[in-house]
């Protein structure tokens, strides 16, 4: 799977980035239970340099087959704040459809997600879509109504997201808002997180460019 190969493909740059603060990512990995307490203790007592610790950590995660969950962790807002250079890592192959999808939604920082874009997000959700709905503030009765009115599961997932959007305040139904609502969901698919995070990264860059333009005008 392309996502699993992404860690191996970007191993050198990931290790370099995480070496800036190795113990932060080590604690986060343990917090998400991607490594055991024994593995954590052994790594935490590592007498090598920062890069050596990160190399050993990444190797353990690869050997345990935790690449997808590790990628999801690396896309977490708090982790990105600590390691901003992770935003430049290409998680998908250049020919991957998931990568092109992430670049095609939400071109404006203040643009709300359209129903077509919500459908793209819905397509990345599996059986955990009802759990996602609860994280987004929907009630069980909302899900019962959606299921009663729409038989296809694919339609149910999209309608759930549409309902979320309708209940959001004006201007607060962007990919960034959706990702924020789902950030505490441990079972959130990596594809969903990558799709939304890719969009957020684009939005942040657009906002930064706009801010630079405004600053030049003020000068």
Question: How is this structure best described in words?
Answer:
The protein is mostly helical and 219 residues long. The protein folds into two domains: 2-88; 97-218, Death Domain, Fas. 67% of the residues lie in helices and 0% in strands. The protein is built from 14 helices and no strands. The chain has helices spanning 2-9, 11-18, 22-31, 37-44, 50-63, 67-74, 77-82, 97-102, 115-124, 129-135, 140-149, 153-167, 175-182, 190-218. Helix 3 runs antiparallel to helix 4 (37-44). The radius of gyration is 19 Å and the shape is elongated. It starts with a helix and ends with a helix. Pfam families: Death (PF00531).
Q: Just give the CATH class of the largest domain.
A: Mainly Alpha
Q: Radius of gyration in whole Å, from Cα? A: 19 Å
Q: What fold name goes in the CATH topology slot of the largest domain?
A: Death Domain, Fas
Encode the helix/strand succession as letters. HHHHHHHHHHHHHH
Unreliable spans are 94-104, 199-211
Helices, by number, come to 14
Q: Total strand count, please?
A: 0
- Principal-axis shape: elongated
Pfam families: Death
InterPro entries: DEATH-like_dom_sf, Death_dom
Domain Death: 114-186
Organism: Gadus morhua
């Amino acid at each position: 799977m392309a996502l699993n190969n992404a860690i191996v493909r970007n191993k050198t740059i990931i290790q370099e980035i995480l070496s800036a603060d190795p113990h932060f990512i080590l604690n986060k990995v343990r917090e998400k239970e991607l490594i055991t307490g024994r593995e954590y203790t052994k790594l935490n007592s590592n007498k090598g340099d920062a890069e050596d610790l990160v190399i050993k950590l990444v190797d353990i995660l690869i050997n345990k087959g935790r690449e997808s969950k590790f990628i999801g962790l690396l896309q977490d807002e708090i982790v990105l704040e600590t390691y901003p250079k992770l935003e430049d890592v290409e998680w998908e192959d250049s020919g991957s459809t998931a990568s092109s999808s992430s670049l095609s939604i939400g071109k404006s920082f203040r643009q709300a997600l359209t129903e077509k874009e919500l459908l793209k997000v819905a397509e990345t959700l599996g059986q955990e879509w009802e759990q996602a709905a609860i994280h987004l503030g929907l009630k069980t009765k909302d899900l019962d109504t959606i299921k009663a009115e729409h038989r296809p599961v694919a339609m149910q997932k999209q309608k759930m997201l549409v309902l979320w959007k309708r209940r959001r305040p004006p201007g607060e139904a962007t990919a960034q808002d959706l990702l924020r609502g789902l950030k505490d969901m441990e079972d959130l698919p990596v594809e969903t997180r990558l799709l939304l995070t890719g969009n957020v990264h684009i939005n942040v860059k657009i906002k930064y460019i706009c801010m630079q333009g405004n600053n030049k005008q003020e000068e």
